[in-house]
Description:
Blueprint: E1 7-11, H1 16-31, H2 44-59, E2 63-70, E3 73-81, E4 91-99, H3 108-122, E5 127-133, H4 137-144, E6 148-158, E7 164-173
Parallel strand pairs: 4-5
Antiparallel strand pairs: 1-2, 2-3, 3-4, 5-7, 6-7
Helix pairs in contact: 1-2
This protein binds coenzyme A.
Amino acid sequence: MNTPTWSLRRVHALDDALIDGLAAVLIDCVEGDASVSFMHPLPRDRAVAFWRRVAHGVAAGERALLVAEDALGLCGTVQLVLDQPDNQPHRADLAKMLVHRRVRRQGLGTALMRAAEATARECGKTLLVLDAVTNGDAARLYESLGWVRVGVIPGYALMPRGGLCDTTVYYRTLGA
Ligand SMILES: CC(C)(COP(=O)(O)OP(=O)(O)OC[C@H]1O[C@@H](n2cnc3c(N)ncnc32)[C@H](O)[C@@H]1OP(=O)(O)O)[C@@H](O)C(=O)NCCC(=O)NCCS
């Protein structure tokens, strides 16, 4: 097995360099037609504004943010939305799982998911929820990692260049 060329870490505060790198990964994913809340083309200032909002959530402890970096810079990220209603303290949403196209299909997505699950446990979470484009690359990844399919919502969102796509909702129970 090849040694990974990236390193993963949890970030507790975002500086401008990190926000720049995260914006670049988000723009690359939208350019590659990933349905991740934004339309194509995604202007840099809009991507930066998104990550600045995330930075506030991270600083407030409402979100856990993981990043992956390699020799060329930031190459992947995933988040846990920890801040949930009073009656769901054991739950988190997994969000914005993004891997730059230059490092895809090398196991980074899998590594980010495993790290996110470990972080969720450390935060006392026992139930994770996410949604993904039905039958897409991400959905295949989640199913291979044991996430349970709840169901499909037809026509949930637009693809970056237009056209509705279906979304599948998943959950995962974290054992002790
Ligand atoms: C979904 C996504 C995160 C997956 O990231 P990734 O780093 O490519 O994931 P992995 O490398 O762990 O796995 C992807 C595939 O590569 C394969 N793979 C992993 N390591 C490999 C290796 N060393 N050699 C060959 N293939 C490999 C996996 O088996 C998997 O195969 P499959 O697609 O046929 O099932 C990435 O495609 C992405 O960022 N997409 C755009 C954003 C997006 O849609 N995010 C999800 C929002 S819900």
